[in-house]
Structures
1.
Amino acid sequence: MSTISRRNLLQLGAMAAALNAVRLPATPRIRGGGPAEEGWQTRSYRWIQVAFTEDDPGNYDPDFWLRYFQQIRAQGACLSAGGAIAFYPTDVPFHQRSSYLGAGDSFGEMVRGCRRLGMAVIGRIDATLYADIRNLLNFRNVVNLFAETGDVRNDLNREKTIGSPEKVSGEYAALWNEAGNAGALAADKSVDLTSCTAWSSQLSCVSLRRAEARFGNGDGTFTLAEQQRTFNTFYDSFFGAWRFYAPARQVRIGFEFKF
């Protein structure tokens, strides 16, 4: 079975147009048109659109397309200037050029060629006005639960994750063991962080200093209350009840301009 390429298909289309098209004057006019009707928008009747793909720059034949425009007697062309990517050497911040463009200018190249043929040219761009509104009434929808409790809270899971000071387990046990070996653990389970010299891991000591400054009063003594605040914040940040609720009300309104 024979196949036909895109180029052959276009050539057949050009031949059909040449055989069947009605002859048009080079610059057709609207009967009775005044000066306001002399613009390109009234002179151009036969248009063609060429939509670039990202890998077209450097890989397409502009002369082929310009010859095709002549064959079908196109009077105007709509060309891809840009969108998500640019087909010209844009200097607009955050507007990405086609990775195949290099030092070239595919859009400009086609514009200049069309101008030589006396054609009108439109550069195609994308512009979007959008409103993204979710959960407008701000329902607090529960979408999941702990299987063990049938609730969004699970104290056993919390204890398993961070430990318990009463049972000397988990993160509390690890902290107190390290602090005890450094001679920094007091009887009330507070940890002296004023010096990291005796700690087996001074990095750990410095990290604890920062945690004490963030969740305590920054005096260098990591009290039991400050330890609990630190570990519970960690748990709530990664495993808290917020995971079981649908997103709260969100409204985004904006204008997106692609060129």
2.
Amino acid sequence: MKVEAIITKLNTAKGKTLLLNVNNRIVDNPEVTKAVERAYAECYQSIHEDNEGFFVYLSVELDPRRIDCNQHPSKKTVGFFGADKIYENIYNWVLQQIKEESSIKNIATNIVTKGKIPFNVNRNMLLNLRPSQPSQNIN
């Protein structure tokens, strides 16, 4: 599994927003949303804050055989085979990134991006982003 993300630091976002991209398709997955919410909630609790707001763009690349597209007729909501491990890995990875960084950061874990923004947006919209970190696989 490969992950790319843009995450906000604590106390920078109002509301909770997760954009989940699985294999280049924007989808929903309630369990991944819960994993991200859990990671942020744990960090906010550790600094005694009630906000718990965040913005996360999470791009996950998985073997297509591990994706269950039959969760909803529109195919917008997907599930994963071997989901428990995937959710726990995403939770641990997001939690680690939040704890390590104190500002918005671009966490590009796919070596192919080589520091480039992993999707099409205006560079002026992504102020305060740092270059990509070395490639990371989370299993």
3.
Amino acid sequence: MYNIVAGWRSPVSRKAHNLEIAGSNPAPAIYFAAPKAVFIIKGAKMRISAKPSTYIIDGLNFVRSYLLKTRYSDEESLISQTALWLDDLSQDVLLGSSFRLVLDGGFRDIGQSKMQRVNVIFAEDRTADDIIFEQASYMSQNRLRVCVVTSDGELTRSLSERGVKTLSCAQFFKAFY
């Protein structure tokens, strides 16, 4: 199984780390470039700002539309890994940014207690799209920095009509990995 989460959170790195032995703290498995003023995505007009922003991620859409096509793992495991990866991004590359990972369905433990800057929202009896649209519209109307990550064409069109910035799941993932 390929693990998209870098650093000490990966099982191999965690097993190799022994606080009692000097030098046993392994270096992160993945290095990200230092944040610049703007990340430019090849072939895309959208730019990812290094300024603190709120990214609202269409969780199942992100995993199903992009990651399941490129990674060999089960869906729940990829959701958990995605949440941890987003938490790492918020503490390193996108310092000060926060993430809202919106998932369809009821509550389930995906390791959210370990995360500092990722708020996991379960749609319960609503759709994730409704929650994403509502929150992103509110934030945009109040002039808060927000970007929605989804590959849902209808949701993207609706948000664009309201002036909300959007990125496809593939664009967002490729910008950092």
4.
Amino acid sequence: MTTDERLDKLERRARRQGWLILLLLAATAWLSFPSGEGTNWRWLGGLGLLLLAAAVWLGFIKGPKFIRSTIQAQPAGPITTVRANAFILENENGEIRAMLAMDESQSGMPGLVFYDEKSKQRIGLGINNDGVPSLDLCDENGSNRMGLNVDKSGPKLSLYDENGKSRVGMSENKKDGEVELFLNDAQGKPRIVLDINKEGPGLGLSDESGKSQVAMGVKQHGPLLGLTDEHGKTQVGMHVDNKGKGHMLTGPLLLSQVV
């Protein structure tokens, strides 16, 4: 039932009650006159007033105008503005389940947080003082396990383990259109990087320190493979040019020499 319907129902009830009170008062006054000549007419008049009151109560007759005017729906228009620094939603036990507030740790930027039945944060939505919006999803312990944000370079998605280390990352650079996928180890070091840019797709494999050891890709001039030492020098390179001819280079060389 809408608000207008509820108000209309209350208005009809008030009309009936108003008429009922007036008619009952009239019937009481009528029957209170001293008995004498015309007693039968007095009783018939009182009975008529009681029947009229019953008709009003059953809704056959509208209430008086001054009663009808006491309850009216609000005229259509803009909703009144509510200003506050925080809104808190609590359950029947007084436990906080959601909060919309200005985050003082982010220089007064707004944030929306949802809590589970154990008062652990599960969802966080906000914007930092650099204007970067973010969405965080947490596990049953309140630890952040997934983060999504959009900064000046483009959107980014990160998946975290239970220790807070980033294990998977995805990003898109709106400047050059490059898309990257990162797979990190337990220390948060990138071990596998898959990307695609204007030149073509590429795959990089890194050691435990995060240094690239294997690089391969398919570029405009053909497929290539490079094996790199711990100093970042390519020691073995293989390449097939756009004429279908294969090349293999060994020794200290830059990856650019392979192509």
